[in-house]
Design a protein that fits this description.
The protein is an alpha/beta fold. The chain has one domain: UDP-N-acetylmuramoyl-L-alanine:D-glutamate ligase, CATH 3.40.1190. The protein is built from eleven helices and 13 strands. The strands form two sheets. A nine-stranded mixed beta sheet has the order 5-4-1-8-9-10-11-12-13, with helices on both faces. Strands 3-2-6-7 form a four-stranded mixed beta sheet. Helix 2 links the parallel strand 4 and strand 5. The longest helix has 18 residues. Bound molecules: adenosine monophosphate (AMP). Adenosine monophosphate (AMP) binds next to strand 2, helix 1 and helix 8. Adenosine monophosphate binds next to strand 2, helix 1 and helix 8.
Length: 314
């Protein structure tokens, strides 16, 4: 098989958190490591296409730790350094690795952040509004020029605190990624098909609902696609799986420039593959180690995982 990436790569603009995470899992602890939705997304998407990252860090942020991202072709000129402390997230996973327990969210410089999209980023054909305050996600859309695809993510924190703005945002995006618990919380439907329908009625025509180790659904008005999660023997730290999934999904679409249903289904599998790499080590370590060969090989393993013969015989 040839590599899954073509030559028509388009820019992806991502606006998200650039954080310091402290994470506890049954397998160990990491303190103040590189995290944030923007960081994970960029680490993943940059395997496929050039990425432009917009975010904010405080004056305590170890900016040199972002150097590996720059080396991978992530344009960091939209990462602003502000006076104050960086965004910090502290979370814990118990034996159910599918759900993070947030112990602390320290917004720091994020609470006064107004995203400024640099002039040279405003025409990016693919825009990902990673998990941040929906009011900021809306401000980004006021500054960009007719992207081919606008996607967003969110989480319980914002569903609880900024619900009206989040519902308003849905009217301006083509696609949303969220996990099953978030979809249920946002829509107040326990049934995921009904939850996806509720979201599509508000705007986005593609709704990607992630179910952690149980895979991911892509709902459109006419179809439902499902991809399993890669059955890893050991999941080390689930933090960032969702953003890495989104990075693989959008990065692959931008790399191929093909928004057909067939290609979007392939993108879901690429996203699942990238999510599976992210959880193999703390922080974005594994995402920065892997090569395109590793990604291609894992995508092939997904095919093996679900291939079966439909000729049932007698
Ligand atoms: P996920 O892909 O859902 O596991 O996202 C994990 C990342 O989200 C972590 O690296 C956190 O720094 C970041 N994060 C957690 N809470 C928030 C929040 N309220 N806003 C923005 N980013 C967050």
């Amino acid at each position: 098989m040839t590599s899954i990436v073509g030559s028509a790569a388009s820019q992806v603009l991502v606006v998200g958190s650039v954080a310091l995470d402290s994470v506890e899992t049954p397998f160990g602890k990491a303190d103040e490591v590189l995290g944030g939705s923007g960081n994970y997304f960029a680490s993943s998407a940059s395997h496929f296409t050039p990425v432009q990252l917009v975010g904010v860090v405080g004056d305590d942020y170890p900016l040199e730790k972002l150097a590996p991202l720059a080396a991978r072709g992530v344009d960091l000129s939209g990462v602003e350094k502000a006076e104050g402390t960086s965004f910090r997230w502290r979370g814990r996973y118990r034996h159910d690795l599918n759900s993070a327990e947030t112990l602390e969210t320290h917004l720091g410089v994020f609470s006064h952040f107004r995203p400024k999209i640099p002039e040279q980023f405003r025409r990016a054909p693919f825009v990902f509004l990673a998990n941040i305050d929906p009011r900021l996600q809306l401000q980004v859309l006021e500054q960009v020029e007719k992207p081919q695809l606008v996607a967003c993510d969110t989480m319980n924190f914002w569903i609880e605190s900024r619900r009206p703005e989040l519902v308003e945002l849905l009217g301006h995006v083509d696609l949303i990624t969220l996990n099953d618990a978030e979809a249920r919380q946002l829509t107040e439907h326990t049934n995921l098909v009904q939850a996806a329908r509720w979201i599509m009625d508000k705007g986005p025509k593609h709704v990607l609902i992630k179910k952690g180790e149980h895979g991911a659904f892509m709902f459109t008005p006419d179809s439902i696609f499902f991809a399993p999660a890669y059955p890893l023997e050991s999941v080390f730290d689930p933090t960032g799986a969702g953003d890495s999934f989104a990075g693989g999904f959008i990065g692959y679409l931008a790399a191929t420039g093909d928004l057909s249903d067939r290609n979007m289904r392939r993108a879901v599998v690429v996203g699942s593959a990238m999510g599976s790499f992210a959880v193999e080590k703390f922080s974005n370590t594994r995402l920065l180690e892997i090569t395109r060969d590793d990604i291609d090989a894992r995508v092939r393993e997904f095919r093996q995982l679900v291939a079966f013969d439909t000729e049932l015989g007698a």
